[in-house]
Amino acid sequence: MWTSFKQQSSPHILTTYNTESRFSTMTDHYFVSKLLNVFWIRELVTRLASTSENEGEVVINFFNPGGVKTGLHRDTKPMQIFDALTGRTAEEGGRLVIDAAFLKGRDTHGCYLSEAKVVE
Predict the structure, then answer these.
(1) Are 116 and 99 a contacting pair, CB within 8 Å?
(2) Number of domains in the chain
């Protein structure tokens, strides 16, 4: 949603993504990393769904805990301020991890969860 994903036309997306010259735009780099996570999870869900031996045994949820004050943005002052104003505590963020990992059931397999709710 927030990146132009310039690497998508590269024949080797991860190699292009890992090029040091691309690190100059850290915000976009961060957004692309999140997008690649979404692609990876979608592919994993597709591959798992195609094997009948795993059916019902594994539930894969991709979740977004939202902003959490963890120190991840320690080098970016605007993000530190944003986290301080709007971020969850690590405990609150942890609850969302537990929700996605243990509380959601098969009906959420392959879904994207944001703040403990299934969203498109």
Answers:
(1) yes
(2) 2
Q: What is the 3-state secondary structure (H, E, C) of the chain?
A: CCCCCHHHHCCCHHHHHCCHHHHHCHHHHHHHHHHHHHHHHHHHHHHHHCCHHHCCCCCCCEEECCCECCCCCCCCHHHHHHHHHHCECHHHHHHHHHHHHHHCCHHHCCCEEECCEEEC
| 72 and 106 fall within a common domain | yes
Cα-trace Rg, the chain: 17
Q: For 8-55, write each residue's pLDDT tens digit.
A: 788 888 887 777 776 667 777 788 888 888 889 989 988 886 665 656
* Amino acid making up residue 11: P
Question: The pTM is what?
Answer: 0.69
Task: Give the residue numbers spanning the domain of 18.
Answer: 1-57
Compute the half-sphere exposure of residue 72: CA atoms within 13 Å on the CB side of its CA.
15
Cα separation of 3 and 34, whole Å?
Answer: 10
Residue 113 sits at the vertex; the CA angle it makes with 25 and 32, to the nearest 5 degrees, is: 15
